[in-house]
Model the fold of this input.
Amino acid sequence: MTRIWLSLTALVLGGCASVAHTSHGLSRHSLPGSHFGPVAESAADCSAVGGTWEYRETAVRQRCSVPTPDAGKACTDHSECAGLCIAPSEAQAGSRTSGACHHTYNLGFTCLAGVSNGVAETILCVD
Done:
């Protein structure tokens, strides 16, 4: 009985964590750190790098949202953006597509699919 309870607890708590649905999709480990922008751990640090200190209803804590200089620019690969190249919401993973440079370095509170070498990646959800 204890084993079943522990398994169920692990499943429930695992569902609360950030989920990266990746086979070859967006990942902090597969892209240079520069694509994720400056790190700010306080409102003062965030303001100093031109960001907005924000709290979203799904977040556990506040985060710094720093705008990218090329937001909305057409792209077919992350290397073409200061942040990440994001696929349109209707793009299917593995399909040829173009995207747009993301408006912030912060990927929190959303599910997005990137574009790499002109192909839509699998979706990454970040909370």
Observations:
- Residues 1-25 have pLDDT under 50 and may be disordered.
- The helical segments are 2-14, 43-48.
- The chain is about 15% helix and 25% strand.
